[in-house]
Amino acid sequence: MLVFGIDIPLVEIVFTFAIIMFLLLVEVIVIISLQVKQLNKTKEVGELLGSLSHTLLEIKQEEIKELDKLKK
């Protein structure tokens, strides 16, 4: 096969493309694993924020009850 006027065997071209595809596959696997880790951390932070807001709401309700008792 002629490439830019140089005769290159087709087997070498296929082998080169196979190596490039393998490297791309490895990169994709690494990126997906990093995204899954980040997704798990984001879920955990969301759950912690939910429990924090629930706790703050309970504290606020207790404060309101105490203020109502003091007013009476």
**What is the averaged pLDDT score?**
92
**Mind describing the biggest β-sheet?**
2 strands, antiparallel
Secondary-structure element order, N to C: EEH
Number of helical elements: 1
| Principal-axes shape call | rod-shaped
Helicity range of the residues?
over 70%
Strand content: 5-15%
**Strand adjacency order, main sheet:** 1-2
Low-confidence stretches: none
N-end to C-end Cα span: 96 Å
Number of strands: 2
What class do helices, strands and sheet pairing give? mainly alpha
Radius of gyration: 31 Å
What layout of secondary structure does this protein have?
Blueprint: E1 2-3, E2 6-7, H1 10-71
Antiparallel strand pairs: 1-2
Please, could you describe this protein's structure?
With 72 residues, the chain is mainly α. The chain is built from one helix and two strands, in the order E-E-H. The chain has one helix spanning 10-71, and strands at 2-3, 6-7. It has a two-stranded antiparallel ribbon with strand order 1-2. A hairpin with a 2-residue loop joins strand 1 and strand 2 (6-7).
Question: What would a concise description of this structure say?
Answer:
The protein has about 70 residues and is mainly alpha-helical. It contains one helix and two strands.
Which labels suit this protein?
6% strand; two-stranded antiparallel sheet; 86% helix; 72 residues; rod-shaped; mainly alpha; 1 helix
